[in-house]
Amino acid sequence: DAGITQSPRHKVTETGTPVTLRCHQTENHRYMYWYRQDPGHGLRLIHYSYGVKDTDKGEVSDGYSVSRSKTEDFLLTLESATSSQTSVYFCAISDHGTVNTEAFFGQGTRLTVV
Amino acid sequence: QQQVKQSPQSLIVQKGGISIINCAYENTAFDYFPWYQQFPGKGPALLIAIRPDVSEKKEGRFTISFNKSAKQFSLHIMDSQPGDSATYFCAAPSGYSTLTFGKGTMLLVSP
User: Fold this and answer.
1) pLDDT, tens digit, 9 for 90 and up, residues A20-53
2) Which of A23, A56, A98, A105 should one mutate to test binding to chain B, selecting the residue with the greatest count of B CBs within 10 A?
3) Nearest CB to B98: which of A90, A98, A104?
4) How far apart are CA A11 and CA B60, in angstroms?
5) Is A109 in contact with A6 (CB distance < 8 Å)?
6) Inter-chain CB proximity B98 and A45 less than 8 Å
7) In this complex, is the C-beta atom of B43 within 8 Å of any C-beta atom belonging to chain A?
8) Residue A112 and residue B9: Cα distance in Å, rounded?
9) Distance CA A31, CA A60 (A)
10) Exposed/middle/buried for B91, CB within 10 Å: 0-12, 13-18, 19+?
């Protein structure tokens, strides 16, 4: 497996609380992505980064923010978690962007908002 | 915004049979169409990808067929095996560095 670590792997949180998920890579890839996976919806892009402090929104970015202060770390924050954000979250990395090269996915974080 | 329609949603194939999954996309300025495979509890992993300067790409038992005029591409799994049981996602470019994924096809290969 590519050197991608997501933490935590599982989390249960209450509605209205802030939550931060972490993605750490050891591959020095330029691009990092956050996806959510839900039954019937497949993989949907939340946010992505194309370099340190360079980020952009994906198709389902509302309610989420991201930060990338180092090449190896990409954080996803739910400012005030809602039940609709219960999902499995995947981080992915890519050297030249997923349109050109392979994306390597982490093992996922299962988040439950109660 | 790119949309990718994938069918069927689920598929049951007998061992040794052919599995076929279809995808259709809208518009794209970039030519790169991958398929990802996901086993339960794991992240997706690249299975095979095509750049449509060719209409077909084969890697072992897996083949992508591409029809650029119809904006459609498909994955064929020959001699399907129980170990191929997984969820398969097609994807199409939605920007310079992002992909839009289909909703996935859950394949079960019965022994």
Assistant:
1) 999 999 999 999 999 999 998 999 999 999 999 9
2) A98
3) A98
4) 39
5) yes
6) yes
7) yes
8) 25
9) 18
10) buried
Q: Which amino acid is at A43?
A: L
**Do β-strands A64-70 and B4-7 pair in parallel, antiparallel, or remain unpaired?**
unpaired
| B31 closest CA partner among B55, B47, B6 | B55
How far apart CA B111 and CA B104 sit, in angstroms, is 22
Nearest to A22 by CA among A99, A107, A86, A102: A107
**pLDDT < 50: residue spans in chain A:** none
Cβ contact B89:B36 at 8 Å? yes
User: How many CB atoms lie under 10 A from the CB of residue A67?
Assistant: 15
